[in-house]
Amino acid sequence: MRILLPLILTAGLAGAIALTTQTPSPRAEFTFISKGSVNILDPAQMSYMQDIRMAQSIWEGLTSLHPETSQAMEGAAYFPPETSPDQRRYVFTLRPEAKWSNGDRVLARDFVRGWRRAVEPGTADVYAELIADHITGVGEYVSWRTAFIEALGEVRKLQQGRTLEGKGARTLLTGVVAEYMLDQFGMNADELPDVHDEPGWNALAGRINVEPRSWKRMGDRLLKRHVAEMDRRWSRVGIRVFDDQRLEVTLARPTAFFLDLTAFSTYLPVHESIELLQETYAIPDDSRPGRSIVLPLTDRGEWASDPEWPKPVYHRNGYTGVVGNGAYVLKEWVFKQRMRLEANPFYWNLRNVRSKSVELIDIEYNNTAFLLYSQGAADMMNDLTMDYTPTLVEQQRAGRRDDIRTIPSFGTYEYGFNC
Question: Above pLDDT 70, what percent of the chain?
Answer without folding.
Answer: 94
